[in-house]
């Protein structure tokens, strides 16, 4: 809906033809965003050739599906089109970030990343939202911000693609930990401690990749961490909450996409490769793979050696 502002026709492609037909018929996404009508310009389509006219393509699919979607889309992408990845995660099989996946699968496209604190329903309702758009070339980032911003959806530009991607991928994993603490009723103080120590992990990883401080402290880093760790509306937080309440990793998902569950192990591997300590993320990955209980994770985090705050 946001992307359609000021445009005559914005094709909305999806792989699930029944869902696309329902979107075209109902003019709303009854599955995920009931009661929020599609903007008139949005044209649901199952035909990828509809992308041929697009100067800007937004990739809004689960991180683990991004490669196959870009591969399918490539033959239809116009030369020089910008492909903006909106997925927050790391590809499990390759440990690659989304901008790398897009660059590998569609080398002719201009790659950009959109990330930041934004629940789809808030954006769709026209509530004020601010996020970061990063592209290697500042002029491209500025162009995309101008093209995609609306009065209520504010884009800040950046050239720090990796910093933006690290924030988006890490915050989902850390939000699972915060959800677990809430589900275990550990209290608001524990919650705040997890956000602060989680941010220390995100920042350490970002710095090891050369991410800029303003990115890590900004919308796509601290901003999205605070939103996702502090709201039951978050699917990652909700997954953690169910785990904290005693559900198994298999039960706790409730059929919703919680990207942190797919990215946790990859995040930990990426961190280990750079010798970065991420004990909270490690605990989440271990719980999700049934190597550790929630109780065991609490014990191991509380019993870590005392150290300087960094
Ligand atoms: N929902 C939000 O509030 C929100 C906000 C910011 C960023 N994101 C990010 O956007 C990405 C997508 O999230 P979402 O909430 O739109 O998820 P979603 O579960 O609604 O899925 C988005 C679309 O991807 C399609 N899809 C699923 N598997 C696919 C596959 N294998 N191949 C092709 N298409 C497939 C689905 O049919 C759906 O239309 C995630 O990485 C998420 O972190 C979501
Ligand atoms: O529902 P979540 O946990 O996927 O969070 C959605 C967005 O990423 C919040 O910025």
Automatic annotation (TrEMBL):
Binding site for NADPH: 15, 88, 120, 235, 257, 259
Chemical reaction(s) catalysed: sn-glycerol 3-phosphate + NADP(+) = dihydroxyacetone phosphate + NADPH + H(+); sn-glycerol 3-phosphate + NAD(+) = dihydroxyacetone phosphate + NADH + H(+)
Active-site residue list: 171 (proton acceptor)
Domain Glycerol-3-phosphate dehydrogenase NAD-dependent N-terminal: 1-139
Pathway membership: Membrane lipid metabolism; glycerophospholipid metabolism
EC number annotated for this UniProt entry: 1.1.1.94
GO biological process, one term: phospholipid biosynthetic process
Pfam families, per database record: NAD_Gly3P_dh_C, NAD_Gly3P_dh_N
Compartment(s): Cytoplasm
Chief location of this protein within or outside the cell: cytoplasm
Binding site residues for sn-glycerol 3-phosphate: 88, 116, 118, 171, 224, 234-236
Residues annotated as domain Glycerol-3-phosphate dehydrogenase NAD-dependent C-terminal: 160-298
Binding site for substrate: 88, 235-236
Binding site for NAD(+): 120, 235, 256
InterPro entries the UniProt entry points to: 6-PGluconate_DH-like_C_sf, 6PGD_dom2, G3P_DH_NAD-dep, G3P_DH_NAD-dep_C, G3P_DH_NAD-dep_N, NAD(P)-bd_dom_sf
NCBIfam families in alphabetical order: PRK00094.1-2 (NF000940), PRK00094.1-4 (NF000942)
Family that this chain belongs to: Belongs to the NAD-dependent glycerol-3-phosphate dehydrogenase family.
Function: Catalyzes the reduction of the glycolytic intermediate dihydroxyacetone phosphate (DHAP) to sn-glycerol 3-phosphate (G3P), the key precursor for phospholipid synthesis.
Record protein name field: Glycerol-3-phosphate dehydrogenase [NAD(P)+]
Annotated gene: gpsA
């Amino acid at each position: 809906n946001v992307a359609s502002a000021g445009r005559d026709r914005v094709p909305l492609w999806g792989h699930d033809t029944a869902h696309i037909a329902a979107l075209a018929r109902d003019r709303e996404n009854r599955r995920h965003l009931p009661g929020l009508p599609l903007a008139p310009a949005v044209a649901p389509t199952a035909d990828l050739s509809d992308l041929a006219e697009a100067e800007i393509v937004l990739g809004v699919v689960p991180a683990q599906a991004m490669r196959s979607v870009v591969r399918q889309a490539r033959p239809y992408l116009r030369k020089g089109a910008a492909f903006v990845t909106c997925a927050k995660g790391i590809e499990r099989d390759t440990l690659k970030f989304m901008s790398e996946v897009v660059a590998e699968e569609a080398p002719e496209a201009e790659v950009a990343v959109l990330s930041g604190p934004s629940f789809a329903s808030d954006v769709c309702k026209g509530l004020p939202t601010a996020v970061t758009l990063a592209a290697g070339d500042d002029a491209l980032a500025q162009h995309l911000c101008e093209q995609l911003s609306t009065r209520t959806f504010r884009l800040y530009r950046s050239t720090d693609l990796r910093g933006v991607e690290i924030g988006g991928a890490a915050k989902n994993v850390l939000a699972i930990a915060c959800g677990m603490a809430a589900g275990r009723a550990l209290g608001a103080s524990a919650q705040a401690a997890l956000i602060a120590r989680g941010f220390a992990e995100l920042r350490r990883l970002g710095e090891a990749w050369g991410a800029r401080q303003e990115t890590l402290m900004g919308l796509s880093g601290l901003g999205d961490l605070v939103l996702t760790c502090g709201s039951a509306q978050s699917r990652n937080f909700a997954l953690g909450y169910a785990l904290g309440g005693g559900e198994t990793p298999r039960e706790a998902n409730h059929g919703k996409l919680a990207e942190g569950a797919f990215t946790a192990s990859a995040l930990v591997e990426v961190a280990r490769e750079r010798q970065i300590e991420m004990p909270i993320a490690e605990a989440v990955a271990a719980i999700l793979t049934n190597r550790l209980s929630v109780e065991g994770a609490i014990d191991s985090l509380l019993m870590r050696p005392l150290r300087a705050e960094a």
